[in-house]
Design brief:
By secondary structure, the protein is α/β, with parallel strands linked by helices. The chain is 43% helix and 12% strand. A five-stranded mixed β-sheet has the order 3-2-1-4-5, with helices on both faces. The protein starts with 9 loop residues before the first helix and ends with a helix.
């Protein structure tokens, strides 16, 4: 936004854009190797024990010889986009000005493909740094319909991956997300509602609501990500895409009668949608 070669001074440009001069000159500090290693360990503990908040994580890490302050843990968890999955006030990092939609899946039997899609975003560690993975999952079949690896947590990435799923697989009855700010942003919510879908959002810290996507994250990380040390964003994108393709077409699920997500998706797709 700021053009340092422009005839207007940097101070004048900052004033016109309504941003502080400090923000213009700020240069983010790279994350230290120690913090990257700590974030990797936090991610592993979060997958194993999603109910752990910063206080309990601090105690568990201390028992493992890793001493870190609770406030620093909170900062890293916020940066990673993770939170304790337990019912308590203030667990969801949603934007205070964004509208939150009601939860629509209570007592709903999900048996058809394209009945309910779920979206979520997770932290992916690399050899140096990290990225975020956002995916659209068909709940009835566990099929990953679309995904995107990005370096930031923004609504534009959630909207883009959802639009990809719309183009390739049609329109579901319900789209379910958590209350993360990327999903409560108007850019995302309008993309859902404009297609005639109903938008559902999990209750605060309700782990069971998006459990199928949480299981997907566990599978991707333990069966792929933690076995790799991605040396860059491009390598992460390529390898995760290859794994998701294998997951959809080759990996059988006991909960799906040993069928793959791809087989189950097409078998459970209503006839009218198959014809379309």
């Amino acid at each position: 936004m700021i053009d340092r070669e422009h005839p207007l001074s940097v101070a004048r440009q900052a004033k016109l854009l309504d941003i502080s001069r400090g923000a213009v000159y700020y240069r983010p500090r790279p994350i230290s190797d120690a913090d990257l290693a700590l974030m990797r360990r936090i991610d592993e503990l979060h997958l194993e024990h999603p109910f752990m908040g910063a206080r309990m994580l601090r105690r568990v890490l201390a028992r493992q010889g890793i001493h870190v302050g609770r406030r620093h843990l909170c900062t890293l968890m916020k940066r990673m986009g993770i939170q304790a999955l337990c019912p308590q006030p203030g667990t969801s990092e949603r934007h205070p000005q964004h509208k939150v939609y009601p939860y629509l899946l209570r007592k709903v039997a999900i048996s058809r493909a394209n009945q309910v899609w779920a979206l979520d975003t997770t932290y992916i560690p690399m050899a140096r740094g990290f990225v975020y993975l956002t995916a659209v999952v068909d709940v009835a079949s566990r099929r990953v319909l679309a995904h995107k690896v990005a370096i930031t947590l923004e609504a534009c990435h959630a909207r883009e991956v959802l639009e990809q799923a719309f183009v390739r697989f049609g329109v579901p009855e319900i789209v379910n997300t958590d209350q993360g700010s990327q999903f409560t942003a108007e850019e995302f919510t309008q993309a859902v509602l404009a297609r005639g879908c109903r938008l559902s959002m999990d209750g605060k810290g309700a782990w069971r609501d998006n459990v199928f996507v949480e299981r997907l994250w566990r599978t991707i990380k333990y069966e792929r990500v933690y076995l790799r040390a991605y040396d860059g964003v491009s390598a992460a994108k390529l390898d995760i895409a290859q794994f998701i393709d294998w997951y959809n077409t080759e990996r059988p699920h006991s909960s799906l009668d040993d069928q793959t997500p791809d087989q189950t998706y097409w078998a459970r797709l209503p006839a009218l949608q198959q014809a379309a």
